[in-house]
Amino acid sequence: MTPFLREDWYLASLGRTLIWARLRVLEAGTAEVLDSDGNTLPYDSEDSARAALFDAEFVAFDGLDEDDALARGFSLAGVQPPQGDDDAALVPLMVQSLGARA
Description:
- Strand 3 and strand 4 form a beta hairpin.
- The model has no long low-confidence stretch (mean pLDDT 92).
- This protein has a domain at 4-74.
- It contains three helices and six strands, in the order ββββαβααβ.
- It has helices at residues 46-55, 66-71, 87-90; strands spanning 4-14, 17-26, 31-34, 40-43, 59-60, 95-97.
- 20% of the residues lie in helices and 33% in strands.
- Strands 1, 2, 3, 4, 5 and 6 form a six-stranded antiparallel β-sheet that branches.
- The protein is globular and about 40 Å long.
């Protein structure tokens, strides 16, 4: 595993589906994004990685408040980033169906 300084989670919503991406800022000053297909995409900087995520309509999970979440069609109450022992365990959890609206 590559040493990293920080890990941030991003999400995009498509209807009732959340798509997650993990951004890691590496000690070398570069960054990498784990996407929902299991690809680890390298970037020359944290800024370029964030720009690519924003261009793909991802938002920072830790920057969302309940109003932002509701505008995207979900509540923060039952949503959290995927958790797993390694990237292989995370990949199947990177696309999350929220089910039908009540």
